[in-house]
Design a protein that fits this description.
Order of helices and strands: HHEHHEH
Distance between the termini: 24 Å
Strand content: 5-15%
Number of domains: 1
Strand order of the largest sheet: 1-2
Number of helices: 5
Structural class: mainly alpha
Number of strands: 2
Helix content: 55-70%
Shape: elongated
């Protein structure tokens, strides 16, 4: 039902939430030796999801390991500037998607009230 009401935005919100969790994990493990930073290719995940893949399948097919610009000696590939930028961009996208959904809910509420 939510896909009918919110279209692609409901799916996008779920994917952005999962990406936020992955980016948070990268930041939390910035000092863990051997930790490999990962990210979700949002466009690929969204395309897979709209083509009928489950959330798990879409995330699994779109998860990529980051290639560091400056490798560290301990094998950790987290670069804080890259992670913070990706986190900020994803947060803005999440907020915009949430505002669209909120606007849609407000429109439906007004329509049901007859305003």
């Amino acid at each position: 039902m939510s896909e009918g009401l919110f279209g692609i935005h409901g799916v996008a919100l779920q994917l952005r939430s999962q990406r936020m969790g992955l980016l948070t994990s990268n930041i939390a493990n910035a000092a863990t030796p051997g930790y490999k930073a990962r990210d979700i290719d949002f466009a690929a995940a969204l395309k897979a999801r709209t083509n009928g893949a489950s959330d798990e399948q879409a995330i699994a097919s779109a998860t990529r390991y980051r290639v560091p610009t400056m490798p560290t000696l301990d094998g950790n590939t987290v670069e804080m500037a890259t992670e913070q930028l990706a986190f900020s961009e994803n947060a803005v996208g999440y907020s915009a998607t949430l505002q669209f959904i909120n606007g849609r809910v407000n429109t439906l509420t007004r329509a049901l009230k007859g305003e």
